[in-house]
Amino acid sequence: MSSNIYLHPVGLALGPQSESTGDGPGAIRLAGTMAYASRFVLIVREEGKVTHRRVFGLSDAAEALDEPGGTLAREAQVQWANLQKVHDPLPLGERTVRLDQPQVMGVLNVTPDSFSDGGEWLEKPDAGAAHAAAMLEAGASIIDIGGESTRPGGNATFEGDEIDRVVPAIEYCAQMGAAISVDTRRAGVLEAALGKGAHMANDVSALRYDPRMLELVASAKCPVVLMHAPGTGEDLHSLEGLSGGEYKDVVSDVFDTLHHQRAKAIAGGIAEERIMIDPGIGFGKSLADNLLLINALPLFHALGSPLLVGLSRKRMIGALSREEPPHERLGGSIALAMAAMNAGAHMLRVHDVPETVQARNVWRGLRDAALTDFSLLPGM
Q: Among 24, 40, 200, 257, which residue's beta carbon has the most beta carbons within 10 A?
């Protein structure tokens, strides 16, 4: 019988002192970020059904983690350590990106059918370069360049066409000294991109689409983002690869897939500290699925890798509001970015860099103030 364990932080806190009872910290720091958690739920699933569930705090953590027994208890200890793991900075060429506060990754789509810019950055390279420069000036830590539209219903892209689209953008971003990620699932594209100055791979198939990707990333020693998408072929949004064509439980299904792909990547020679994970909001998921995943974001720290989240201008924003088109979804994008930061996301992949950086800076100020507010300590 297949059994899996999940360690989900469910009680988020402003800091350790806000939950302290006088006997020590009342919360743990999540994955080296500015987010904290004081209450947790341990869940065991057997063949998809919940067979064990316990809510606990720091005072009874040791007992709760040991309760499932055997290999499940050992896995619980691993996940508990992962929740508190402090991640090393990302080395990206001449730049180093620290992960102790939320970082902003700016999107530069060079496709003819991008949902966000309508192909402007592809058709007008000078405009694309100006946009990239503006994102860097506004505080983007990384520029993520994509040459294939991965929106639902998007057309498949030939590898040669994708290379022709991304290489010029990589060249002008490299001239600016930018840290560059390439958003691709094709080894040929990544190889060409790294040769022109890219530093990082952002694979929306989590290395499942192209069998050469794992070996290339391992040999290049470049950081890689493993994103969840259910489709195994050209259509990343297809549910055909799922048992019965549907999620049994979207949160645990996404967690399990990323757990498997992460382990496979490490076994294939990719250094653990160079892996990021992304739950793939909007990729083959319904509105209800997306909302469940966003509320469960703290769980994904238990995988042991930094968390990247892409929520900017997603269709779900329009679905929850008044069906606004992508360029009118800034308010919703900021609201989702705040939710991700509260959950301890290490990196936000966004279209609207200045506004997101401003929101991040204000959020960080609030967190800093909470950590120095001694009135929250017992007895004050």
A: 200
Higher pLDDT, 46 or 150: 46
Pair 284, 239 in one domain:
yes
Q: How many domains does the chain have?
A: 2
For residue 229, CA distances in Å to 89, 103, 214, 251 come to 26, 23, 17, 13
Residues 35 and 108 in one domain: no
Co-location of 175 and 264 in the same domain: yes
Give CA–CA dist 228/207, Å, rounded: 10
Which residues 6+ apart lie within 8 Å of 48 measured at CB?
248, 249, 252
User: Rg of the chain over CA atoms, in angstroms?
Assistant: 21
Is residue 374 in some structural domain? no
Do 255 and 6 meet the contact criterion of CB atoms below 8 Å apart? yes
Evaluate whether 319 touches 286 at the Cβ level (below 8 Å). Answer: no
Once rounded to an integer, what is the mean pLDDT over residues 263-276?
98
Cβ distance 355 to 334 under 8 Å?
Answer: yes
- Amino acid in the structure at residue 162: E
Single-letter residue type at 6: Y
Q: In this structure, are 267 and 141 located in the same domain?
A: yes
Q: Is residue 377 part of a domain?
A: no
Within a domain: 160: yes
Catalytic residue positions, numbered:
314, 349
119 and 177 both lie in a single domain: yes
Phi, psi torsion values for 181, nearest 5 degrees: -110, 145
Range of the domain at 332: 90-362
The first and second tokens of residue 244, run together, are: 């019965």
Dihedral of the alpha carbons of 134, 136, 139, 144, in degrees to the nearest 10: 110
Residue indicated by tokens 């050992």: 74
SS3 187: helix
Q: From 86, 112, 141, give the residue that closes a domain.
A: 86
pLDDT above 80 (res 374): no
| Residue-wise pLDDT tens digits, 145-199 | 999 987 776 677 899 999 999 999 999 999 999 999 999 999 999 999 999 999 9
Strand ranges of the sheet holding 180-183, from the earlier edge strand across to the other edge:
275-278, 224-227, 200-203, 180-183, 142-146, 103-109, 347-350, 308-310
Quote the longest CA-to-CA distance of the chain: 66
Higher-pLDDT residue of 222 and 236 is 222
Give the model's confidence band at 203: pLDDT under 50 very low, under 70 low, under 90 confident, else very high.
Answer: very high
